[in-house]
Structures are given as C-alpha cells and as structure tokens.
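WARN no homologs supplied; continuing
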Amino acid sequence: MSERLPSLDVLLDLNQGERDKQLAHFDALDSKAGIVLGFAGVLIALSGNVNGWWQGLGLAAAVVASGAAVAAFWPRRYPVLLPSAIGEYVAVEEVFTKLTVFDTLENMINETTDLLELKARRLKFALISLAAAATLYGGGVLAA
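OK structure emitted
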C-alpha cells in the first residue's frame, strides 16, 4: 500500500523540517525578547532621577517595552507529539501511521504558526516601545 503513496515520505520530511524551523524561531524570538527586556531594565534602572516630562515619557515607554517583552517571552504551550499518543499505531499499517503523523504535524504547524505570529507581534511592539523609550529619555537628558 505504501507504493501507492510515494510522496508521503517527502511530505513527512518537509513537515518535520518546517516544525524544526518553527521551534528554532521560537527560541530566536525568546532570545530577542530577553535582550529587549534587559535593555528596558537597564534604562529603567538608570532613570532614578527623572527630570522633565521627556524623561518621564521615556521611562513610561521603557516600562511598556519591558511588559511587552515579558509578554513575548512568557512561556506558552505549543503542540507536541506525545509518544504515548502515537504508541497505538505500532501494529497498524505503515502508510496509515505515516498519514496520521502527517496530518498531526500539519495541524501542529498551523497552531504553532498562530503562536509565533502573536509572539512576533508582541516582540515588535516591545522593540518599538524600547526605541521610543531610548529616544524620549535621551532627548530628555539632552534637553536638561
């Protein structure tokens, strides 16, 4: 029966490759969110004595940036293939098992894409807030 579906192995490999890329993207976004959180934290720590409304707005933007970075960095559950869930397919025909794994991976990729998009939007907002914080706070320091 597997001879009738020669492209199934190729599609499974493609799905697994895409899944691996998504997990790497998760890690990269988390790393970037950690960097934004660190810079926002430094800016907040350095703003002990706020003089003027520019610096106040910069401090507020840094707080917003840190909150958005935490929201982007916050651990979320993403779909995984549990060995216990696929153990029942050991005695089933290979092609049926491959089709089931293919469908499952496809669904997992779609769900993970949504999570990645949300994480990326939050990180983008954090970066914009951090840029605004640095600009406003720096402008306030120069104006003082």
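The longest helix spans residues 94-143.
OK
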